[in-house]
Amino acid sequence: MNSVILQLAAKYLRILFLSFALIALVRGHNFPGGGFIGGLLAALYIVYDSLAFTTQQIKKELIVRPEHYIGSGLVCVLLSFLPSVLSGSPLMQGKWLSLDIPLIGVTKLGTPLLFDVGVFLTVMGVTLLFLFTLSTKK
Amino acid sequence: MTETGLPILLPFALIIVLIFMRSTVSSRWTGIVGALLNMIVAVYLFLQLRHDDVLVLQVGGWEAPYGITLALDYLSALMLLVTALIVLVIAIYAFRFIGDRPGYSKFHVFFFSLTMGVNGAFITGDVFNFYVWLEVILLSSFVLITMGAKKDQLEGGIKYMTLNLIASLLFLAGIGLLYGKTGTLNMAHLARILINDQQSILMNTSAMMFFVALGIKAAVFPLFFWLPASYHTPNITVTSLFAGLLTKVGVYALIRFFTLFFVQDVYFWHNLLLIIAGLTMVIGGMAATIYFETRRILSYHIISQIGYMIMGLGIYTPLAIAGSIFFMIHNIIAKTNTFLVMGIVSKIKGTFYLKDIGGLYKERPFIAILFIIPAFALAGIPPLSGFFGKFILIKAGIEDKHYIVTAVAVLTSLLTLYSMIKIWNEAFLKKQPESTHLPSKVKLKISEVLPSVILALASVLLGLLAAPFFEWTLAAANQLMDPNVYIEAVLNKIE
Asked: How are beta strands A105-110 and B69-72 bridged, if at all?
């Protein structure tokens, strides 16, 4: 499809989709949302883009290949285990860090967030892999 | 104990490394190194059991029954060990038999995700978590079957996937009912609740769901159809891996569940198990006799041998359970080895059809020896491992007065022997049929023969050192028959 309106809309909607995805990711620990939903939302923006443009163009714009999104997601998950192991607590126990960031206030960052980032990247990578595989002609 | 999580974490880390790896040569080497590490982990955990009865990890620090528990007792540790052996052997075998074939570039990723699933299923102490590992196994095995994307592979893969999804569905339904009735899914907690429950005959609905689901996974008599429909299609490396590990997860779960918490209606369940065991042995053994494709013959044999493992569970004495475990470990080793040898044979002769193969005994006596060891082990000829496995089971059967199933077990051995002799006669003794095109002179590499040699040695050692090894399986069986140790370890342990 080659529609100027859709392409223009895609450019602006991109920001909207991505920020929603990030919001869903960050609030996910205590509220509805989380890595899985965030990942799907982020993938949605690329699906939308691929409707407006061609899949080949999108592939070029993505910095890394979908498999590597999955890989780096899994790395995040593995890294999120490290603090619990290094401090001698049971595996996968949540560890939290309180940061006092100016303007935002006291923010708690923890291993569950890192885990969620891992899920986010993995889900996004898997969805993209589906999309690219199904839309490539053999 | 954080180490208890290592059988899951290690394959997980290997998957990540392999995803980023581009060249197939380096992923093949990573596969072998990773499998060695996995072996070290399994041995280490097994040695740890000398200090504790059960190794327990409450994941995330959430105590049982609220969190997910990983619990490792003798049975789990033995299964981890033999899994690690098979994984190591297959990693070496894959070096050339997978090689850099097109379509197989991500073989090792799914190989280790299957390993992760199998390891996870063996050490989890939570019914729902077990279901998750079953799904991990199912997904990765589906990918492994259809790798290469040939028509018959897709057909086999879809049959495999459909029937196994039905099993998953039933299993999930069983979990739902169980959770509704007891409010917990932690295995130890379930056991504690159900032991003191007078109404526990109500458990039979969930038990039946579990039995059918795990029966499909383990390929017992009326539920085995997915196995012969799919096992002859993938690359022989994949088939060997599946032959060793997949069905055994189902058997492991049956043993675990029906000794730990489905113990209310013993008379009904264990008679049912015995009937199913007898039928599975005979039908599998008889079906094997009509085929002339080696992979199909051996696939039906897997089914036949599952019967023996279920029989031990059905008799339900410590000796019989020990026999089941012994037999399962022997079978994993010997069965995988027969498939590996058939892979080598097909490489030399270019086919799996017995009609087109012949004369191997004269051409390659070494391969003939490699075949005869697992084949005789499966048939149960002393001093190889299968003899002791069957001996323990039959002794337990006679002691507990289960004469019919014991007689069936003895007679099925003849069927097994018949099939093995058929392969031996056709492939090794008879003359090479002249009409077939042979591949030009094949030279075998070390990495192709070594796996089979390792497993053959394991079969012989398991037979020669049967006594100390039997002590281990008996320890595992005693632990299973006295669930209190397991329950106490999971529910009362404070780290």
From this structure: unpaired
B→A contacts (Cβ < 8 Å), by residue, are: 2, 5, 9, 12-13, 15-16, 19-20, 57-61, 495
C-alpha of B218 from chain center: 9
Q: Which residue has the higher pLDDT, B22 or B329?
A: B329
Contacts of A74 in chain B (CB under 8 A): 12, 15-16, 19
Q: How confident is the model at residue A38, as a pLDDT? A: 92
The pLDDT of residue B258 is above 80: yes
CA–CA gap between residue A89 and residue B71 (Å, rounded)? 17
The residue type at B428: F
- Chain segment B58-105, per-residue pLDDT in tens: 888 888 788 899 999 999 999 999 999 999 999 999 988 887 788 888
Q: Within an 8 Å CB–CB cutoff, is residue A81 touching chain B?
A: yes
Q: At a CB cut-off of 8 Å and minimum separation 6, what does A37 contact?
A: A24, A28
Per residue in B450-461, pLDDT tens? 999 999 999 999
Q: Does A51 touch chain B (CB under 8 A)?
A: no
**Mapping DSSP to helix (H, G, I), strand (E, B) and coil, where does residue B380 land?**
coil
CB A52 within 8 A of CB A7: yes
Residue A74's pLDDT band, with cuts at 50, 70 and 90, is: very high
Please enumerate in sequence order all residues whose Cβ is within 8 A of that of A116, keeping only pairs 6 or more positions apart, or say none: A25, A28, A29, A34, A35, A38
With b for 16 or more beta-carbon neighbours within 10 A and e for fewer, the B103-127 pattern comes to: ebbbbbbbbbbbbbbbbbbbbbbbb
Reference B215, options B226, B204, B205; nearest CA is B226
The tens digit of pLDDT for each residue in B186-235 reads 999 988 888 877 666 778 888 899 999 999 999 998 888 888 888 888 88
Output the pTM of the full model. 0.92
Closest chain B CA to residue A66:
B19
Q: At what angle do helices B24-48 and B6-20 cross, to 10 degrees?
A: 170
| Amino acid type, B225 | F
Confidence of residue B494 (pLDDT cuts 50, 70, 90): very low
With a CB cutoff of 8 Å and minimum separation 6, the contacts of B278 are: B307, B311, B404, B405, B408, B409
Name the residue among A74, A81, A90 with its Cβ closest to that of B16.
Answer: A74
Answer yes or no: are the C-beta atoms of B352 and B297 closer than 8 Å. Answer: no
Full DSSP string of A3-72: -HHHHHHHHHHHHHHHHHHHHHHHHTTTSS--HHHHHHHHHHHHHHHHHHS-HHHHHHHSSS-HHHHHHH
Residues of chain A in contact with residue B5, where contact means CB-CB under 8 angstroms, are 91
Q: What are phi and psi of A106, to 5 degrees?
A: -75, 125
- Can you tell me the distance from the alpha carbon of B350 to that of B357, in angstroms, rounded to the nearest whole number? 9
Tokens 């009509």 — which residue? Answer: B290
Report the alpha-carbon distance of residue B117 to residue B249 in Å, rounded: 10
Alpha-carbon span A32 to B372, nearest angstrom? 61
**Least-confidence region, from A104-118, B12-26, B428-442:** B428-442
With beta carbons under 8 A apart, name residues in chain B contacting A75: 16
Measure A135 CA to nearest chain B CA, in Å.
18
